[in-house]
Amino acid sequence: LLFLSKTGGKDRRSGLILTIPLCLEQTSMDELSVTLDYLLSIPSEKCKARGFTVIVDGRKSQWNVVKTVVLMLQNVVPAEVSLVCVVKPDEFWDKKVTHFCFWKEKDRLGFEVILVSANKLTRYIEPCQLTEDFGGTLTYDHMDWLNKRLVFEKFTKESTSLLDELALINNGSDKGTQQERERSIDLNFLPSVDPETVLQTGHELLSELQQRRFNGSDGGVSWSPMDDELLAQPQVMKLLDSLREQYTRYQEVCRQRSKRTQLEEIQQKVMQVVNWLEGPGSEQLRTQWGIGDSIRASQALQQKHEEIESQHSEWFAVYVELNQQIAALLNAGDEEDLVELKALQQQLSDVCYRQASQLEFRQNLLQAALEFHSVAQDLSQQLDGLLGMLCVDVAPADGASIQQTLKLLEEKLKSVDLGLQGLREKGQSLLDQISNQASWAYGKDVTIENKENVDHIQGVMEDMQLRKQRCEDMVDVRRLKMLQMVQLFKCEEDAAQAVEWLSELLDALLKTHIRLGDDAQETKVLLEKHRKFVDVAQSTYDYGRQLLQATVVLCQSLRCTSRSSGDTLPRLNRVWKQFTVTSEERVHRLETAVAFHSTAEKILQECPEQPEAFNEMEQFDEIEAVGKSLLDRLTVPVVYPDGSEQYFGSPSDMASAAEHIREKMKLVSLKKQQLKQPEATTPES
After folding, report:
1. Res 93: pLDDT
2. 521 and 610 share a domain?
3. Which residues in the chain show pLDDT less than 50?
4. What region holds the CRAL-TRIO domain (predicted)?
5. Which of 8, 109, 291, 678 could form a disulfide with 226 if both were Cys (CB 3.0 to 4.6 A apart)?
6. Angle in degrees, 0-180, between the axes of helices 447-512 and 399-435, rounded to the nearest 10
7. Which helix (H) or strand (E) holds 113?
8. Is residue 461 in a domain?
9. Would you state the pLDDT for residue 216?
10. Among residues 369, 191, 385, which one has the least CA distance to residue 288?
11. DSSP class of 25
12. Residue 102 falls within a domain, yes or no?
């Protein structure tokens, strides 16, 4: 059965196709015969009348085995078989071996036998009725069919046995006296198999058969179910209908017996629940009224309350079960029990709901107390952290860190405000609940307990308010101090920046202020620009001095020593002295250059026909002295008070300026020689 298959395909005469795959291993003819008998017992007589087409797949077997199988078909199913297709291998059997001609034996065998290759099998059977093994398109899963067949036979066997058992139980309950019925029910109360399981198996099997019948294939051609599946569907449906009928009667029998036993137990259990809830249960709640003065105390009370709730839950579970049982009996409609059941149900519900409401109120009160103490503890920790931050002296490295610290301080203060607001809300909610506590006191005076709880809550809120006010005052002082420190750091940074600016001005003076001008006019312009440059430097120096004076005032206010002013002031004075010395040297050179160019230009512009203007030769001597003095200063460095030296520009820059002065001195010297020649020629003439 694991290898033979009835694929559901049909030949051109609408007969079913039976496939016998042979393999290299030894094939048992007895097993093959039994399997064929089983497969042929499945289809209906109408299907059998159309005949079978048998495909013997001998591609992996020997000729002798194939021949034996074909001859066996003569003994097993000669009447049902109309055609046998022997699929031969690619390398055909030896002609001598296959000399036995099946077509000559057709009359003796009772059916036609043909030898055909797998790829030519479609000449006799449509491709849509062949599986992929023979080049067809028919979808068939042999293991799936086998599993479904086993499920069907198992269901048939179990359902038939179960129907007999249920019928025996149900028929026994309908006959004889009440004692006989109960005895019969006791003896046959439980079937050997679970009816629900059998019904579920049957429904799943029927659903699978119906789904395979109506689903189409992927190619769009409707899939035709095998005849055994079509035959199985009405069998399954008939068994399911019988099972449902007997099982419904069986359930009614069980329900009647259960109702009779329940009625006697309900009244006893109801009284047990009522007596405990009104006795020990109520006494437990009367002794629990405190809310605790801390988180730990509230948690301990909650734990104690949970133990009480746990004990009540056991009785509440009994109440739920009893209520369901009473409701079921009320729905049954027995009039003689309705009044008593409703009275028991009402009494039980009143006691349980009252006790449950008391438990819920107590649980909500303890939860509110726990939340109040939790918020109070968080707020206390926030206040401690804020106070610790305020008690530590501020020693930041720069203004940015001060700003960050100030921001953190403001955030903590805001968090404290929100925490105090939340504490007030939780406290007021808890006070409102406590004010309603007297209504649940069962006649007990709880004024003293409530007063202690109210005093504790109000005391906690007042204490937190005072602590928060003290922290706010300290934050105001710390904020002022930190803002002054920010200003102090800003002054120190700006003063240091002023020193840098002054150093840059000095560097620019030495490296870029080099030219002495080509004439007196240009030199005067350079001298005027230099004075403006000095004014900028003077303003920078004054700005730095003012900032440093401000740092001294802030340090005195903060009672701290400035870390920067002690170093910045000497640097500022040193750079300023260097700038002053360099500026004076620059002014002296420019003034000397102005004198030199003015005198030289005056001499060079005089007409040679007016010798009386140069009667005194000391002008030439003076301009030569000025020029030499200017050339000498160009080669001398600027000497600072600390002994260090700096040159104006590069040597090439100084050489260029000196060369221009020398050229002008040559012109003056040439002019002097021209004036001397007329004086020498006049006496001779």
Report:
1. 61
2. yes
3. 1-3, 96-97, 99, 176-177, 180, 183-185, 187-188, 216-225, 442-443, 562, 564, 613-616, 684-685
4. 1-142
5. 8
6. 170
7. strand 112-116
8. yes
9. 43
10. 369
11. S
12. yes
Q: Concatenated DSSP letters for 65-80?
A: HHHHHHHHHHHHSTTT
Task: Give, rounded to a whole angstrom, the gap between the first and last alpha carbons of the chain.
Answer: 162
Contact predicate 220/128, CB 8 Å: no
Residue 399 has what pLDDT? 65
Q: What is d(CA 10, CA 50) in angstroms, rounded to the nearest whole number?
A: 10
What phi, psi does 140 have (nearest 5°)?
-150, 130
- Enter the pTM of the model: 0.42
Two tokens, residue 607: 């007409």
Amino acid type, 639: V
β pairing state of 81-87 and 112-116: parallel
State the CATH number of the domain containing residue 600.
Answer: 1.20.58
Which CATH number is 132's domain given?
3.40.525.10
> How high is the pLDDT of residue 173?
63
Query: What is residue 681's predicted lDDT score, i.e. its pLDDT?
Result: 52
The token pair at 520 is 């007196």
Nearest to 400, CA basis, from 411, 408, 389, 392: 408
Q: What is the reported pLDDT for 268? A: 83
Q: Do 306 and 251 have their domain in common?
A: no
Interval 588-604: pLDDT, tens? 888 888 888 888 888 77
The pLDDT of residue 218:
41
CB neighbour class for 594 (10 Å; exposed up to 12, middle 13-18, buried from 19): buried
Residue 217's region, left for phi above 0, alpha for psi from -120 to 50, else beta, is beta
- By DSSP bridging, strand 16-21 and strand 81-87 are unpaired
**Sequence-separated (6 or more) residues with CB below 8 Å from residue 135:** 118, 119, 121, 122, 127
Candidates 50, 60, 49; CA nearest to 87 is 60
Sign of the CA dihedral 97, 99, 103, 104?
negative
CA distance 10 to 7: 9
Q: How far apart are CA 151 and CA 4, in angstroms?
A: 18
> What amino acid occupies position 591?
E
> Which domain covers residue 598, as residue numbers?
513-676
Q: Do residues 115 and 67 both lie within one domain?
A: yes
Provide the sign of the torsion angle of the four alpha carbons 662, 665, 667, 669, taken in this order: negative
pLDDT value of position 536: 92
Q: Compute how many other C-beta atoms are within 10 angstroms of the C-beta atom of residue 105.
A: 16
CA angle 14, 15, 21 (to 5 degrees): 130
In a domain? residue 190: no
- The Cα–Cα gap between 408 and 393 comes to 15
| Strand pairing class (52-57; 81-87) | parallel
| C-alpha dihedral sign at 35, 39, 42, 48 | negative
What is the rounded CA–CA span in Å between residue 50 and residue 19? 17
Q: Hey, CA dihedral for 171, 175, 179, 180, is it positive or negative?
A: negative
Do 155 and 116 fall into the same domain? Answer: no
Q: What confidence score (pLDDT) does residue 94 get?
A: 57
User: Residue 150, Cα to own-chain centre: how many angstroms?
Assistant: 49
Dist CA 215 CA 222 (whole Å):
7
Rounded Cα–Cα distance for residues 504 and 501 (Å): 5
- Within-domain flag for 257: yes
